[in-house]
């Protein structure tokens, strides 16, 4: 037993020594990026899938748990693959050119996005929409910082909020099929299910009656 413990400690010391080697930093960063992508993807998707599945999906408990597990795995896997691809391509470009330039990041991410998130499925669609909204805000701020557009005299956020909500509710009411399925489910719950009730039970306690009365 003592020999096994000594071997384990020696292995740990060797691993820690390897992690301190600067010449392996780029390769090790790719591996840790894969790890962090997998963990972060699971942390983000699991609670979201749990809430959305139990709120809006029908089926047995086993089916719901399977759906949650599949969504969590897909998000975790894709994010891990993307970080691995992005950091690997970034390191390769820096090695080839001898330095890191801004275009390296753009190109590596474009290739990673095409390879990992190019499949049009619900998980990838949600991730892309999440990023798109934040990109639009960031590019707007960057345009102001660089002087491409003038600094607004008043906070434009109230106008943005009004236009976003006006547009999404118009789409929901008249072009619902264009909206992402989970958004359709959320809006149906909020704006249509609230129009229907039979008694106090499905007015305050439940959203919909489950009996045959």
Automatic annotation (TrEMBL):
One of its GO terms (cellular component) is peroxisomal membrane. InterPro entries: Pmp4 (IPR019531). The lineage of its organism: Eukaryota, Metazoa, Chordata, Craniata, Vertebrata. PANTHER family: PEROXISOMAL MEMBRANE PROTEIN 4. This is PXMP4 protein. The gene is Pxmp4.
């Amino acid at each position: 037993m003592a020999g096994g413990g000594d071997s384990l400690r020696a292995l740990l010391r060797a691993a820690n020594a390897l992690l301190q080697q600067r010449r392996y930093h780029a390769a090790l960063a790719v591996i840790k990026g894969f790890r962090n992508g997998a963990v972060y993807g699971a942390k983000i998707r699991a609670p979201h899938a749990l809430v959305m599945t139990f709120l809006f999906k029908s089926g047995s408990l086993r089916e719901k748990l399977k759906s949650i597990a599949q969504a969590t795995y897909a998000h975790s896997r894709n994010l891990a693959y993307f970080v691995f691809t992005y950091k690997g391509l970034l390191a390769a470009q820096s090695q080839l050119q001898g330095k890191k330039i801004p275009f390296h990041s753009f190109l590596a991410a474009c290739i990673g996005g095409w390879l990992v998130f190019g499949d049009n499925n619900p998980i990838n669609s949600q991730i892309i929409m999440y990023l798109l909204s934040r990109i639009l805000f960031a590019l707007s701020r960057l345009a102001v910082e660089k002087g491409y557009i003038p600094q607004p005299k008043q906070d434009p956020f109230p106008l943005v909020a009004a236009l976003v909500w006006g547009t999404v509710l118009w789409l929901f009411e008249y072009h619902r099929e264009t909206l992402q399925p989970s958004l359709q489910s959320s809006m149906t719950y909020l704006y249509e299910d609230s129009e229907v009730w039979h008694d106090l039970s499905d007015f305050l306690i439940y959203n919909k009656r489950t009996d045959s009365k």
